[in-house]
Design goal:
Subcellular location: Mitochondrion
Radius of gyration: 37 Å
Number of strands: 5
Family: Belongs to the mitochondrion-specific ribosomal protein mL67 family.
Oligomer: single chain
Shape: elongated
GO cellular component, one term: mitochondrion
Keywords: Mitochondrion, Ribonucleoprotein, Ribosomal protein, Transcription, Transcription regulation
Largest sheet: 5 strands, mixed
Strand content: 5-15%
Helix content: 25-40%
GO molecular function: DNA strand exchange activity; single-stranded DNA binding; structural constituent of ribosome
Structural class: alpha+beta
Strand order of the largest sheet: 2-1-3-4-5
Number of helices: 6
């Protein structure tokens, strides 16, 4: 039987010079395999939305608009998330299967967030928004009465455009003085539902990606930087217009030594006609 040390003979390299240290049994070092570092997903860079402390954002500072992904019904919320006990009070009966037993969070998505500098104005706007929606649901047009119940329910549940138009009208009526309102859109083209927006409204677009079922938490709105940017842009535009007016009124003087001389007319040069390429016939032989 071979000794156990002989099994390692093929793994141990032979020394160039035989010494006392080389006669000692040594084992080869184990190969270290390279390990991959775990993938670290970079966090998206979020823009600054204000102070998010609870003391700086009392109730009424923000109104979150949620819409149903299929029926386009709208629910207003003073909180970032939808609570079933409070949100179900805003869902009215409009026909068969129009009122669910409970809200499904995967069916409701945020599309708008309104931030007010004065919380009392925000609470008043929240009340008026619910009252106007109730009026849209109960006061119908004469044309809706002649339609079927299923089609009428589908038209009445589409509240997305009315809610945006109501917000613009409330901001124009209730927001007075130096108060401002920031409207942060998920899709800026939704602002076209309103006929006009007052000057107190500052429009903004949501930059964070991946918002699907919960609205992004907003901070205190301080209208300082937005107004300065608008003033700077307007001042630059006026200066450019004045420079253009001066350039139009300026007179082009001829160079020295050319005054009094007649300038010969430049003959018209006709461009050479480019021959059109021959058209290929659509007929071909099959091989």
């Amino acid at each position: 039987m071979r000794p156990p040390t002989a099994l390692w003979a093929k793994f141990v390299p032979l020394p160039k010079v035989i010494t006392a240290e080389s006669l000692v049994l040594t084992f080869p070092e184990k190969r270290k395999w390279k390990t991959r570092e775990p993938y670290k997903r970079e966090k998206p860079v979020q823009d600054y939305v204000g102070d998010m402390a609870r003391e700086a954002n009392p109730l009424g500072s923000h109104i979150y608009f949620y819409t149903h992904i299929t029926s386009k019904r709208v629910i207003y919320s003073l909180y970032q998330n939808l609570y079933n006990s409070k949100a179900m009070k805003q869902v009215t009966f409009m026909g068969k299967k129009s009122v669910p037993s409970a809200l499904r969070k995967d069916h409701w998505t945020p599309f708008l967030t309104a931030s007010f500098t004065n919380p009392s104005t925000g609470l008043k706007a929240f009340q008026h928004l619910r009252e106007l929606r109730k009026m849209h649901e109960t006061q119908w047009d004469i044309e809706l009465k002649s339609k079927k119940m299923k089609e009428r329910s589908k038209i009445l549940q589409d509240q997305r455009g009315n809610s945006i138009a109501d917000l613009a009208a409330i901001c124009k009526r209730d927001v007075t003085g130096e108060e401002k309102v920031r409207v942060r859109w998920m899709n800026i083209y939704d602002a076209e539902y309103a006929r006009e927006w007052p000057e107190c409204v500052v429009h903004d677009v949501e930059t964070q990606k991946g918002i699907r079922f919960h609205a992004r938490r907003m901070g205190k709105f301080v209208p300082g930087e937005e107004g300065e940017k608008l003033k700077i842009e307007a001042a630059e535009g006026v200066q450019q217009i004045q420079e253009g007016a001066k350039a139009e009124g300026a007179r082009i003087e001829p160079p020295e030594g050319v005054e009094g001389q007649k300038v010969e007319s430049i003959p018209d040069v006709k461009a050479e006609a480019v021959p059109e390429p021959p058209k290929k016939s659509g007929f071909a032989f099959w091989r």
